[in-house]
Design brief:
alpha/beta; GDSL; single chain; SGNH_hydro_sf; GDSL esterase/lipase; glycoprotein; hydrolase activity, acting on ester bonds
Length: 210
């Protein structure tokens, strides 16, 4: 099985950090999806028969974005998680377009198994109920960083000697404002391998390929 990388994430990150409008960034989604499709088709031509393709994470929950787009409007935030609603809606839009394209590719290549990895909902579990997954430190605050309510400063990133690092990274969801901690990724992996966050289910898909 081939696990595809998270193609497009840095394109979106750069666009958001450059101050592009949400409408303009949404127009980037089709070419990003097309790039993913081209990569999948090329791998199929090389002989790949089982591919797992991940969707976007809930970026509205990342300290980087929460710091950059901090809002005084209460309605901008999900009351359950504290994440920015409009950014998570963008991630869901990307994921919806990706799933449509994956279905199209699957129809063209019925002998290939294409698995959608639902990173978004696998992650939302611990944003909604962090204590159930051992996250007693913080869900929206970076473990390694400095400044502001989310412990993130784009000018002083993790790696500087003077930065504060949380005592127990495994109790935090986010590592440096952009990337999740190993503990968070472990729960996402568990949700993919053992839980309901792959379409079709990974166990069924892999057994059928034997």
């Amino acid at each position: 099985m081939i696990l595809m990388g998270e193609i497009g994430g840095n394109d979106y990150n750069h666009a958001f950090s450059s101050g592009r409008s949400i409408e303009e960034i949404q127009s980037f989604v089709p070419p990003v999806i097309n790039a993913i499709a081209l990569a999948i088709n090329e791998l199929i031509e090389f002989g790949a028969v089982t591919l797992m393709v991940p969707g976007n994470l809930p970026i509205g929950c990342l300290p980087m974005y929460l710091s950059t787009f901090m809002s005084s409007t209460k309605e901008d935030y999900d009351p359950e998680t504290g994440c920015l609603i409009w950014l998570n809606e963008f991630a869901e839009y990307h994921n919806e377009m990706l799933r449509i394209e994956l279905s199209r590719i699957q129809e063209v290549h019925p002998h290939v198994t294409i698995i959608y990895a639902d990173y978004y909902n696998a992650a939302m579990r611990f944003y909604r109920s962090p204590s159930n997954y051992g996250f007693t430190g913080a869900t929206l605050t970076a473990c390694c960083g400095e400044g502001g309510p989310y412990n993130f400063n784009s000018s002083i990133k993790c790696g500087f000697h003077s930065l504060n690092i949380c005592h127990d990274p495994s109790s935090y969801v986010n590592w440096d404002g952009v990337h999740l901690t190993e503990a968070a990724y472990r729960w996402i992996s568990n949700g993919l391998l053992e839980g309901p966050f792959t379409i079709p289910p990974i166990k069924t898909s892999c057994v059928s390929d034997l």
